[in-house]
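Justification of resources, computational component.

The compute hours requested in this renewal are based largely on the per-chain cost of generating structure records like the one below. Each record pairs the submitted sequence with a full C-alpha cell output. That output is archived, and it is also reused by downstream analysis tasks.
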Amino acid sequence: MSGLQRGGYQVWRVLIGLIAVACVVQIFLAGRGAFGVHGAAKLDDQKSFDPHRALGEIIGLLAVLAFLAALVAWRNKRLIWLSLALAVMAEILQHLFALPKHPWVSGLHALDGLAILGLSAMLAHRAWRSNGVPAPTATP
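The structure output for this chain reads:
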C-alpha cells in the first residue's frame, strides 16, 4: 500500500467518524427545529430548522469527500461501495425525501437519516477498531 493510499484511508477514517457524530447532532437539531416551529409559516420558512439544514449540507459534503478518500485508498472494494452508498444517501436521497408537498415521501427523510447514522457508525466502528490499517482485499 502506497503512502497516498494510506493517507486516503486515514482521511476516510476521520471523515466517517465525523459523519457519525454529526448524525447524532443532526437528530438533536431536527427535534429542536420541530419544537421551535412558530406560527402558520410554511415549514420551509421556519427559521428553527436552519441549523438542521446547514448541518445536513455539511454531512452531505463530508460523505462525498469520504467517498473520494475511499477511492484514493483503493484498498477494499466493499469500503468504496459502502462509501458511495453513504454519499448517495446523504447527498441525493436526503434532498429528494425533503419535499414538504409530499408528506409520505418526506417521512422517508427521517428514515434515511437513521440509515445514514447506522451505516456511518458501523463504518466508523470498523475503521477505528482496525488501528488505522484497512482490511486487505480478498484475492480470488
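The two ends are 19 Å apart (CA to CA). The chain has a mean pLDDT of 86.
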